[in-house]
Every structure is written in structure tokens, then in C-alpha cells.
Amino acid sequence: MNFWEFLASRHQQLLTDACQHASAVFQCMVVATVLGVLIGAATYRSEWAGNLATTATATVLTVPALALIGLLIPVVGLGVAPTVIALTLYGLLPVVRNAIVGLRGVDPSLVDAATGIGMSRPARLLRIELPLAWPPILTGIRVATQMLMGIAAIAAYASGPGLGNVIFRGLASLGSANALNQVLAGTLGIIVLALLFDAAYVLIGRLTIPRGIRA
Predict the structure, then answer these.
(1) In 152-208, which ranges are continuous DSSP H helix?
(2) Are 123 and 68 in contact (CB under 8 A)?
(3) Residues 101-114: pLDDT tens digits?
(4) CATH 1.10.3720.10 fits 19-162, yes or no
(5) Is residue 181 a contact partner of residue 106, using CB atoms and an 8 Å limit?
(6) DSSP summary character for residue 11
(7) Region of 199 on the Ramachandran plot (φ > 0 left; ψ -120 to 50 alpha; else beta)
(8) What pLDDT score was predicted for residue 213?
(9) What CA–CA distance (Å, rounded) separates 49 from 60?
(10) Residue 35 · residue 92 · CB < 8 Å
(11) Under-70 pLDDT residues of the chain
């Protein structure tokens, strides 16, 4: 059976795995984005707090994904839970770092003007600073999503959802007729999903970032 015949015979299962993979990455990125922006907003005014937040989230990336998931299994068990926790932690650094950079890059004169007309600090943050910091934040989200696409495949080690199960089944049966087809299908599926997500982020950027800021 060649690769195209394999895809035709397993397309339903591959589509299900791809949807689960995309869903896991999307949901974890939503959580990582909310947490990352909150951390960035809470720490960007202080040099040491911003450095601490960046260093703490960067430390997570030094832990191999397989090791982190393995450490989580005795605590939260197999399945979705270790996948969600690991992916969320890995997705924090690009969002936190870019949120801090973006918020620090807002023109102070605009903030002073907003203060002068009586806007409170939360109002300034929500209506002035975060909208202006959105382009670098979106870039951080794009980077984190691409990274999580690959890491999510390792979640199959903990019986997590996604295309990693296809890859692991192929690796576990190397030498059999369809082993390489399984690995190739899972790998190409992740690449296609990553490209689709990135295209979606480009569209979101065009819809949410004013042309003057993009320029």
C-alpha cells in the first residue's frame, strides 16, 4: 500500500486525530494567551518583575517535553490533563515576553495624555496600552502556536489526543507495511495544521491591527 492509498483508507481516523490535535493546541493557546497577557500586564512596569517573569517562563522550555509530561503523569494521570498543562506552560514564554516588550514600547506621551483626561490605570491599560501592544503580542501567539504544534505530538506518550498517536504507532511498528506511512501522515498533518493556524493569525492581524500600526 502506497502513501496515497493509506490516506484514502484511513482518512476518517486521520481527520479525527487532526481535529483533536488542532483543538488541543487552540484551547491551550487561549489559556496561555490569557495568562501570558495578565503576567505581562502585571510585570512590565518593573524591570526586575519583568525579568523574573521572562526567566521563569523561559525555564520551563529547558525541560524536555517528554520529561515534563512524564513528571505530570503521577500527579494528574494519563490523557488530556498532562497534555493541557504541559502545552499551556510551554506556550507562556513567547506571549509573556512579547506582551512585556509591547507594553513597554507604548509611547509614554499617549499614556500621559490618557492620564490627563482622567482615565484610570485599568482603563489606560485596556483602551490604550494593550491595543497598541497587540501586534507584538500576536507575534508571540503565532510563535507559541507553531511551537506547540510539534510539542503536542509528544502528548501521545501520555495517551493524549492528536496526531502524535499516529506517529507513535508508526514508530512502534517500524518494519511493518504501513509504519512509514503512519509517521509520514502524522508529520505532514501537523505541518498542514501549523500552516493553517499561521494563515489564520495573518488574517486576524489584518483585521485587528490598523494599517498605520502595521506600517
Answers:
(1) 164-172, 179-208
(2) no
(3) 999 998 888 888 88
(4) yes
(5) no
(6) H
(7) alpha
(8) 62
(9) 17
(10) yes
(11) 212-215
